[in-house]
Design a protein that fits this description.
The complex is a heterodimer of chains A (about 160) and B (about 350). Helix content of chain A is about 70%, strand content about 0%. Chain A has seven helices and no strands. In chain A, helix 3 packs antiparallel against helix 5. Chain A is globular, with a radius of gyration of 17 Å. With about 350 residues, chain B is α+β, with helices and mostly antiparallel strands. In chain B, the strands form six sheets. A six-stranded antiparallel sheet of chain B has the order 1-4-5-6-7-8, with helices on one face. Chain B has a four-stranded antiparallel sheet with strand order 9-10-11-12, with no helix packed on it. Chain B has a three-stranded antiparallel sheet with strand order 15-16-17, with no helix packed on it. The longest helix of chain B is centred in the first third of the chain and has 37 residues. The chains are: A mainly alpha (about 160), B alpha+beta (about 350). Chains A and B meet through helix 1, helix 2, helix 3, helix 4 and helix 5 of A and helix 1 and helix 2 of B.
Chain lengths: ~160, ~350
C-alpha cells in the first residue's frame, strides 16, 4: 500500500473510531483537554505503526495504546490533570448531565491502572483475559484491580455530598 | 446509593460525549515528520561524523598547506547584516532567501556549507581561518570565499541560516532547515567541536550531537551512544549536554552560548536538570550550581555530597556519578524510556 492510500485509510479510521475512542480517553482521564492529548498521542502511535496494524484491529490497537499511555503517564508522575473537569468542590446533581458524568468524577479518584481496568472491563466490555492482554498484566491483577476499584467507587459514592474532593 | 457491576456498566455507557475533535491531517502531518526525522537522524549520524571529522581536520590543517580553491559556484556577496564583535556569544540570524545566495561576513572567517535539496539537510561542513583568504575544499558540494573578506555559499533550499562569530573565530552556526537545525560550534579553549542535528519544528524536538576531539578523531566508533545526546529544542534555543570524554553543557536558552565542561565541577557540586515542559517533552541541562545561568525554573537539585547523585524530574530518574552524567532517559513520541549505563550503553528500553 502506498503512502497516499494508507493515509486515506488512516483518515477514515480516525473519523470512524474517534467518537468511541474519545469517550474512552475521557473516562481514562476525566479531563477533556487531557483526553484530547491522550487520544492525539494514541492516534499518532497508531499512525506510526499503521503499516503493521490490520484495519479491523486498528480500534483495538489504539484503545490499547490509550490505556497504556494513560497508565505510563500516571506512573511517570506527569501532569495529566486527572479529573480536571470536575474541580467543583461540591457535586451538583441538579442536572442530568452532571448525574451521568458523576461516574467519571468517581473514576478519576482511582489509580490509573484500576481506572483502566474498570474502563476496559465495564465500558469496553472486555473479558478479564482480554483486559489483561491489553494492559500486559495478569488476569489475577485484573481481578484484583476490579475488586479494589469497585470497592473504592462504592466507598466514594457512599460519602456525603461535597466530601469527594 | 451503591452500585453493582451492571449498574457501573450502565453508568459508564450513559456518560456524555466529551465532544472534542481530532483532525486526522494533524496526526498524519506529525507522523510524517516523525518518520522523516527518524530516517534523517539515522542517516545524519554517519554523515555528521564525517562532517565533523572533516571539519576538525580543516581546523587543524597546517596554514602552509592550503587546499585548492573549489572551482564550483562563486559566492556573490549580497547586502545583509553581518555578525560583528557586537554579537559576541550570540546567534545572528541571516536570511538566505534563494538557492546559491551568499552573505558577506566579517574578515577572517571562512566557511562553506553543503546542503541537500528538497528541504532536508543531508551534510554540511564548516571551516574557518584567521587572517587568511584561502578556502577549504569541500567534501560534498562547494563554495569559494569572496574576493575580499569572507563569504559563504549555500547549496540547498533552506531559507534561513544563523551564524555566530566570536572575535574572528567561528563559534557556532545554526542552520534552520525545513525541519531540522544543524549546528556546529567550536571552542578553542575547550578544544571541542560540536555537531548538532536537531529537529526544529516537531513536537518532540531533539538534537543529536557528535564530538570531534582536538586531535582530529571523532569519538563515535566505539561508543556511539556516549557520543551523541538527544535533547529537546525550544524554538530557536536549545540545550545540549553530551557525555564523551567529559560532559559538556551547551546552553543557549537565553540566546547567549555558554559551554561548561563538567570536569570543572567539584564532586560536591550539584547538578541541576531543568525543565519538564509538558507531558511528552522536557529539556535537559546540566549546569554547575554556581553557574550564573541557572534557570528560574530549576528544581530537583541533587543533594550534595552524594557519590552517585540522582534526581527525579516528574518521575524520570536522572543519575549522575561523580562529574559525569551516566544515565538519563527521554520520553519519545512512543512513550519509551531509554536508559544508558556509565559506558553509554543502552541498557533498557520500554
Amino acid at each position: 500500500m502506498n503512502r497516499s492510500a494508507a493515509d486515506t485509510e488512516f483518515t477514515e479510521f480516525v473519523r470512524r473510531a474517534t467518537p468511541s475512542l474519545r469517550r474512552t480517553a475521557w473516562l481514562l482521564t476525566g479531563d477533556r483537554e487531557a483526553a484530547a492529548d491522550l487520544l492525539q498521542q494514541a492516534l499518532l502511535k497508531t499512525y506510526l505503526a499503521w503499516h503493521r496494524v490490520r484495519a479491523d484491529e486498528a480500534s483495538a490497537y489504539t484503545r490499547k495504546v490509550l490505556a497504556n499511555v494513560a497508565i505510563d503517564t500516571w506512573r511517570k508522575g506527569r501532569d495529566i490533570p486527572v479529573g480536571g473537569d470536575f474541580d467543583r468542590p461540591v457535586r451538583d446533581r441538579s442536572t442530568s448531565v452532571d448525574d451521568h458524568d458523576e461516574i467519571v468524577r468517581l473514576l478519576a479518584a482511582l489509580p490509573a491502572q484500576q481506572r483502566a481496568v474498570i474502563v476496559l472491563r465495564y465500558f469496553e466490555d472486555l473479558t478479564e483475559t482480554a483486559t489483561a492482554n491489553e494492559l500486559g498484566i495478569s488476569v489475577g491483577a485484573v481481578k484484583s484491580a476490579c475488586s479494589r476499584g469497585l470497592a473504592t467507587l462504592r466507598a466514594l459514592e457512599a460519602r456525603p455530598e461535597g466530601s469527594l474532593t | 446509593m451503591s452500585f453493582d457491576e451492571l449498574d457501573l456498566k450502565n453508568r459508564l455507557h450513559a456518560t456524555s460525549d466529551p465532544d472534542f475533535e481530532v483532525d486526522p491531517m494533524d496526526i498524519i502531518t506529525t507522523g510524517r515528520r516523525t518518520i522523516a526525522r527518524r530516517r534523517l537522524l539515522t542517516g545524519a549520524g554517519a554523515l555528521g561524523v564525517l562532517a565533523v571529522g572533516g571539519g576538525t581536520w580543516g581546523l587543524l590543517r597546517p596554514p602552509g598547506d592550503p587546499a585548492p580553491a573549489d572551482p564550483g559556484r562563486q559566492a556573490t556577496p549580497v547586502d545583509s547584516p553581518p555578525p560583528t564583535a557586537a554579537v559576541l556569544n550570540r546567534f545572528v540570524r541571516v536570511d538566505v532567501p534563494d538557492l546559491d545566495s551568499s552573505v558577506k561576513l566579517p574578515d577572517r572567517v571562512t566557511f562553506w556549507l553543503t546542503a541537500g535539496r528538497g528541504g532536508s539537510l543531508v551534510a554540511w561542513q564548516v571551516a574557518f581561518e584567521h587572517g587568511s583568504s584561502s578556502s577549504e575544499r569541500p567534501v560534498m558540494g562547494g563554495s569559494l570565499p569572496g574576493p575580499d573578506g569572507v563569504a559563504w555559499n549555500v547549496s540547498g533550499d533552506h531559507p534561513t541560516m544563523s551564524v555566530g562569530v566570536v572575535a574572528g573565530r567561528l563559534r557556532s552556526v545554526l542552520f534552520a532547515a525545513t525541519s531540522y537545525d544543524q549546528a556546529q560550534a567550536y571552542d578553542e579553549d575547550l578544544g571541542y567541536s560540536f555537531f548538532v542535528v536537531a529537529s526544529q519544528r516537531d513536537i518532540d524536538r531533539r538534537a543529536q550531537l557528535w564530538v570531534a576531539m582536538e586531535d582530529g578523531t571523532v569519538r563515535s566508533a566505539t561508543s556511539r551512544v556516549a557520543e551523541q545526546c538527544v535533547v529537546t529544542i525550544d524554538d530557536a534555543s536549545f540545550t545540549v549536554a553530551v557525555d564523551a570524554t567529559d560532559l559538556l553543557a551547551l546552553d543557549q536558552s537565553d540566546a547567549s552560548a555558554s559551554m561548561t565542561p563538567l570536569s570543572s565541577l567539584k564532586p560536591e557540586q550539584s547538578l541541576i536538570l531543568r525543565g519538564v515542559e509538558n507531558a511528552t517533552r522536557y529539556r535537559l541541562a546540566v549546569l554547575p550550581e554556581a553557574a550564573s545561568r541557572i534557570a528560574p525554573d530549576a528544581r530537583n537539585r541533587t543533594p550534595k555530597g552524594q557519590s552517585a547523585p540522582s534526581v527525579v524530574i516528574d518521575g524520570i530518574t536522572i543519575a549522575a556519578r561523580s562529574h559525569r552524567l551516566v544515565a538519563w532517559s527521554s520520553a519519545d513520541l512512543e512513550g519509551g524510556l531509554d536508559w544508558y549505563d556509565e559506558a553509554g550503553k543502552l541498557r533498557h528500553t520500554h
